């Protein structure tokens, strides 16, 4: 028997791109391809690119360059593949280019470059597919594309309008993940609360009953699986209020990731953000009344075109007022093709820089204050990384990769993915330290 063809895979970009990579790898493994840890010695390199920001494009082009240097046979897919001429201009020798979710084209290109060997007894893959995340947590992609047209974003151009997967199909995938040992499911999409709008919330079957393809039904169904369920990329549409009681009841995690991007109504209007309204602070207060343990995560942009000092100060005051738990902040980047580039009064880089530092300083104070409230409490955490005297874990309020961590000081042997209850001893700006 000859050795299976080997593919070296590079996955760049956001969790949505990661899920695309997992799908492609699952298919490749099912067809008998092996994965290679290095470009050297592989039969082919597949690069799943990100094209969201210019800095991500530069990273994608560099990764393609490395693959060409180390191997020479390279196929490119993913968001940047939607603009093949940009890739060809720098790397004319790539074998094939396809855009995001063009699974069939990317597989066809792989077949042409390195034909598969059919080995029915070796081609088995685990039923949950191949996951690139650690075994105890996984991303669950519920839809693709986006119906919004935020002026700074080109994702709808790259990925098209919203296409939701039927709830029954999503739940079968979720069940397989749980059966394979996954303890935490992170729900992702471009706009999670818009789930099902494109199919008019059509019903589908799961566990002998009909469910609407809708955010609330999805949260209820996932809540039946008995694992941690974390909702990401939620916009504050009115029906989000209905999901908060499920968080309070412990069905899904009391955690919500809402990319607000700004607080000033005029900036939000220029951004064309979905579901923005002036009463957000009041709603957040109501959510916290319903679910006091709720962790709210968000991201913001400073220096959006036309942002005045007054608008920026409004954002800082708003942050003070609502006290979000976890916050990321980006400086505005004029992504090629984004309509916001045509807006007047772009903010000077040094002003943007100063505002970014002021924002981060403010948020560090807020975050430290909010985390301090947890000192002395007992929290259930999940073990993410082992160590001899310090174990890295996460509480219900921490998403992997993006949020802080809970460091458990212990010599006890713990397992990856194990749930333990710890006592929080102290807090820093972003992390907690605990003992068993
Ligand atoms: S909601 Fe806005 S920022 Fe998010 S993907 Fe859609 S258009 Fe882009």
Describe the overall structure.
There is one protein chain. The chain has 436 residues and is α/β, with parallel strands linked by helices. It has 3 domains: 6-113, Rossmann fold (3-Layer(aba) Sandwich); 137-372, tm_1862 like domain (pyruvate-formate lyase- activating enzyme, Alpha-Beta Horseshoe); 378-435, OB fold (Dihydrolipoamide Acetyltransferase, E2P) (Beta Barrel), CATH 2.40.50.140. 32% of the residues lie in helices and 22% in strands. The chain contains 12 helices and 20 strands. It has a 5-stranded parallel sheet, sandwiched between helices. It has a 5-stranded mixed beta barrel with strand order 16-17-18-20-19. Strands 6-9-12 form a 3-stranded parallel sheet. It binds iron/sulfur cluster.
- CATH class group of the largest domain: Alpha Beta
- How many domains? 3
Name given to the CATH homologous superfamily of the largest domain: tm_1862 like domain
The global form is globular
Can you tag this structure with a few keywords?
single chain, alpha/beta, Rossmann fold, pyruvate-formate lyase- activating enzyme, 3 domains, 5-stranded mixed barrel, binds iron/sulfur cluster, cytoplasm, NA-bd_OB-fold
């Amino acid at each position: 028997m000859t050795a299976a063809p080997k593919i070296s895979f590079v996955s760049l970009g956001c969790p949505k791109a990661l899920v695309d990579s997992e799908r492609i790898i699952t298919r490749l493994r099912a067809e008998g391809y092996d994965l290679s840890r290095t470009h050297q010695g592989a039969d082919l390199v597949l690069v799943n690119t990100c094209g969201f920001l210019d800095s991500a494009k530069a990273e994608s082009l560099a990764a393609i360059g490395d693959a060409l240097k180390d191997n020479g046979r390279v196929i490119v897919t993913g968001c940047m593949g939607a603009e093949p001429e940009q890739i060809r201009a720098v790397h004319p020798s790539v074998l094939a280019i396809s855009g995001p979710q063009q699974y069939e084209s990317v597989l066809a290109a792989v077949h042409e470059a390195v034909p598969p060997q059919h080995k029915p007894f070796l081609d088995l893959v685990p039923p949950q597919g191949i996951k690139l995340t650690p075994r105890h947590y996984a991303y669950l992609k519920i839809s693709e594309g986006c119906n919004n047209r935020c002026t700074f974003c080109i994702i709808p151009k790259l990925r098209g309008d919203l296409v939701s997967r039927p709830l029954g199909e999503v739940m079968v995938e979720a069940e397989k993940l749980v059966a394979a040992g996954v303890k935490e499911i992170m729900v992702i999409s471009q706009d999670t609360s818009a789930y099902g709008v494109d199919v008019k919330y059509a019903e589908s079957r799961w566990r002998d009953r009909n469910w609407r393809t809708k955010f609330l039904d999805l949260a209820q169904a996932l809540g039946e699986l008995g694992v941690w369920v974390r909702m990401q990329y939620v916009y504050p549409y009115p029906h989000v209020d209905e999901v908060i009681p499920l968080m309070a009841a412990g069905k899904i995690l009391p955690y919500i990731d809402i990319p607000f991007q700004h607080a000033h109504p005029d900036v939000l209007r220029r951004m064309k953000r979905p579901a923005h309204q002036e009463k957000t602070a009041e709603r957040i207060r109501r959510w916290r009344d319903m679910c006091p343990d709720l962790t709210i995560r968000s991201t913001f942009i400073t220096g959006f075109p036309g942002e005045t000092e007054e608008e920026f100060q409004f954002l800082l005051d708003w942050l003070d007022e609502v006290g979000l738990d976890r916050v990321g902040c980006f400086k505005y980047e004029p992504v090629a093709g984004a309509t916001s580039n045509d807006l007047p009064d772009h903010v000077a880089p040094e002003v943007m820089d100063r505002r970014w530092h002021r924002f981060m300083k403010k948020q560090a104070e807020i975050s430290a204050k909010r985390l301090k409230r947890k000192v002395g409490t007992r929290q259930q955490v999940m073990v993410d990384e082992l160590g001899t005297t310090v174990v890295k874990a996460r509480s219900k309020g921490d998403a992997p990769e993006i949020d802080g961590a809970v460091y458990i000081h212990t010599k006890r042997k713990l397992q990856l993915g194990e749930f333990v209850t710890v006592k929080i001893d102290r807090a820093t700006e972003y992390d907690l330290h605990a003992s068993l």
